[in-house]
Amino acid sequence: MSSFACQITLKPAVSSPCARYLSQNRHCTTLACASSCRVICLACRDYGGGLNMHRRRSRAQLVGFTLSALAFAIASERLQAAEADTTEHVQVVGQAASIDNALKEQRSSDSIKSVVHADGVAQLPDQNVAEAVQRMPGVSVERDQGEGRFVTVRGLAPDLNSVTINGTLVPAPESGRRAVALDVLPAELVQSLSVIKTLTPDMDANSLGGTVDVESLSAFDHKGLFYTGSSEASYDKNTHQTSPKFSGAASNRFSLGDGIDNFGVAAALSWQKRDFGSDNVETGGDWDGSRLQSFEQRDYDISRERTGGGLNFDYKPDDLSKYYLRTLYSRFKDDEVRTTNGFEFANAQSAGQTGDAEGTRKLKARTETQEIQSYVFGGERMVGLWTLSGQAGYSESSEDSPSHIAGATFVGNDDFADTGFYDRDKPRPIVDPSFYDNSNFTLDKVDREKQYTKDTEKNVRLDLARDYDFKGYASQFKFGGKVSRRDKSNDLEVWKYEDFDDQGISDQQLNLTQFQKGTIDYRLGNFGSGISPTAIKGLIGGLNADNAYDEAESRANDFKINEDINAGYFMNTLDVDKWRFIAGLRYEGTEMDAKGTGVRDGAFESSTTNRRYHHWLPGLHARYQIDKSTQLRAAWTKTVVRPTFGQLAPGFVIDDDEASFGNPNLKPLESSNLDLGIEHFMGRAGTVSAFVFYKDIQNFVYNTDLAGTGQWANFSEANTYANGDKAKLYGLELAYSQKLDWLPSPWNGLLLGANATLSRSDASINGFDQSTGTNRKRDIDLPSQSKTVGNVMLGWENDKLSLRLSANYKSAYLYELASIGDKDHDQYVDAQTFVDFSARYSLTKNLKVSFEAQNLTDQPYFVYSGHRAYNGQYEEYGPTYKVGLTFTHF
Prior knowledge:
By secondary structure, the protein is mainly beta. 10% of the residues lie in helices and 58% in strands. The strands form five sheets. It has a 22-stranded antiparallel β-barrel. A five-stranded mixed sheet has the order 3-8-9-6-7. The longest helix is centred in the first third of the chain and has 16 residues.
């Protein structure tokens, strides 16, 4: 037996939670006494509820400890009965309580991570999981149509981070990516969100920035019967449309023997339909110095429907074992109609100049449905000094785009004279009114597509841990393994309808007047009429689809990639006085099989690749408890991220002197990571922390043009992907929150919060510069890396009313690289600040009414080309306002 003693003071208000903590904490030693086993905690100092751990070495004190443990074990049945009547997690009400709950979890974690619980998510008007995560330190989001979609962690792009649901990896619905679009997941299905920034050896090492872990509802999160339901209406100011939303959740615990509520069932359901739109003008960077070659006006009409549900089961037959089944389903349907006015000048023009221009009117109309399914079964059992845990998971993501209009183009019958633009950052057309006369346009071509992508991941893991005494100090040795099998496929079919006159269709039938649809409300100027998708489909529906089928483009974009990963690890946790050390090593072996089709001057070739490689990934974590409120953290880890599936796809297209192809021989990205920081906790919902981080990244991937080099020496284009040299990322992460409850009323309801991440990166790319005929090297920032990311929050609450005003800031970042010798045409997303407000008022104990406002300052999305004066893309969304009603029983 260990030569230490644990002196326990159980305050009445916390005795039951402490008892459960003692019985469930992993870093513990178990004692068998009489007919019961109880766990004596070796990490009591991690829990703030009246537990104090003191080391004892004398034999007499050891005897006293043993007798105390014996008394504790004999009281097993009494404590177990008390556990059935006590909540596993205290019901959280209000902003401060939610933050406090999350901070306790962060404080005791062995990793550096940020946490927000369901009640914290509900405090702000976030549409989805991505927008909820962006409030955390070091996290930002990339948006689509104003909604948060992909998550960036510490400046590293979404494809370099991973997402798990209930501990199992979530595959990506989109065809070429590893990044998971978190706008697929409704926030109502989430019990807690964590962003884990330092990975211990028992975790998958598949992220460079961090892992976003989504935990769904458990019946043991509440005492007895719990249910809640809410309804909401939102108003989009840009389109003047109102949209509904409904959600609900329920849970209860039941007895499966011994009169103890040891079996729990929890269910959640969410549905939202949001109708909105945006107005856009973009050049795509088509600048020649200060002169513009072409630009487009775009109007988006969007309808998004989110449906999600979860059903979870938990069984805890005794204090030493637990078993669970977690399920989650989410469906995201996105209907988008994009209407475009295009202007291409005969000669590049400066602002204010006029000349001849070709005019086009275009339409794209598609429905895209993304689905995510996740099923996780697992359990944990303590046997003597051993803890055995296992888990099996299956996740499936898909994206289905049925037959749709990928592009219908109407061209002007003649060039339009005296055409120009004004404003370089937000170009507005100077155009003769004849441009808006639909009789001046004729249908030139229609592209029709359908696409289906599927990504599945199956995994089984087993972990064994043994607690032991090392020279009087609490220790745990843990080892295990994981087998995962991932399969991703993409199937694209393309039809191109052209030369309509050869198919007996008259010019009159092709005139835009036959397809016009209403006048478009466009906030950025005059736009003209819309185009009817139904009329376009009616036209091409009567044509021979076989003659229009583009087999080359269809087959070249199809692929199947299998990725098998076998992993094993060992790690040791050691508590020495005020220190906790974790050291270990993880092994990951990867085998990849990729199959695709190449098209060489019209002829088809099979393209296959098989690769095997492995990584040894050490990790060292340390935590030092300066006092009961302050702790230091340090971590050195190695992690790995495999290239995206689009980058690895083996398909290629070679046509005369032009080529484009994936690169299945890309090396995985590897990173050595160093993290150092300090955390100080103060009162309720109070913390201040500072962390520095440094990442040394090898083999990062970038787009390149190999034309003019090697086997591509005689090509004008040879676009593919390559591994870069080394890249470095370093930064400072600051966070602060505090409830000012020491102020006099009513100021004691104030709550302040702020976080900021300051980062810098250094990377370089190599390529052939066709303008000079030489190879050259160029220094760049890492794509998606903002130098400054931050949040500020001001809240106030009392027993009835809760108010919260927040601002989220993200500085400019590199979005897209131009050619190796043309940095002036690199595309950057400009800085953005989103301001949101929420108010909640409790009508009764169970009934609450809410008002929310998003994007109060009407923040646009602006992409610039090289310099802020030159437009790449400008898009406006307008504010959104919501009112809601929530009923909760707990």
